[in-house]
Amino acid sequence: MRITKHSLAGNTPYSTPYYVVESKRPGPVVMITAGVHGNEVGSILAAKKLIEQLQNHEVSIRSGTLVLVPVVNQQAYRKRIRGKPDLNRTFPTKAGGTAAHPLSQALLRLAKRYKPSWVFDLHEANGYSNVNKRVLGQSLLTHKQSQAMRAVQQVKRHLNRSIEGRTRKFTIIKRHKQGSFRTAAAKLLRCRAVTVETSWEMPLTTRIQYQRRIVACFMRKAGIQITE
């Protein structure tokens, strides 16, 4: 397994590290992003923990390639804010369109370069979607015709079997969100794209655990096995 560190939007005020993890066996390319919104700390810390474990050889991937951007929006993360403008509204909405922010431009170029078959965008949100359909906390988002739908359903069932009570169980939300990275990846790059949303209502350690479990489940479904 080989890990290389690079800079996204390098030589700009928005520069942020990303990592390419290559196994010794051929396989799919999976892209994981976190920190599109700087106040969604649980997802960021889960992504940082994954790259730390890979670098320390505590875990490894058995096949394929992982492209990981642990903190997309460093400026927003340092201030612990969502970000101004909201980066997840600046991606192009149609073929030939241009991203409206240097970071979204750079992230889309990175995805085009590596051509991932799967994209997982890690987020956090208010509330519990199983209790209030107007909120996103504890949900997995994709769109109705997504080729990822079967994997999303399987991951949801797997997670929910170990979650007691209805409140914290995950739901599936099927919709496009124009201007988001997930929707751009799905519509423009034809990736199997999923947004993961854990709930701010839970303790930080719990949210990190959920994020890490979800990532491991989805990577297995995508064909990249994480081993300890």
TrEMBL record:
Pfam family, one: AstE_AspA_cat
InterPro entries in the record: AstE_AspA_cat (IPR055438), N-alpha-Ac-DABA_deacetylase (IPR053138)
All residue ranges annotated as the Succinylglutamate desuccinylase/Aspartoacylase catalytic domain in the record: 26-155
Cofactor: Zn(2+)
Gene3D superfamilies found in the cross-reference section: Zn peptidases
Keywords of the record: Hydrolase, Metal-binding, Zinc
GO MF annotation, one: hydrolase activity, acting on ester bonds
Source organism superkingdom: Bacteria
Protein name: Succinylglutamate desuccinylase/Aspartoacylase catalytic domain-containing protein
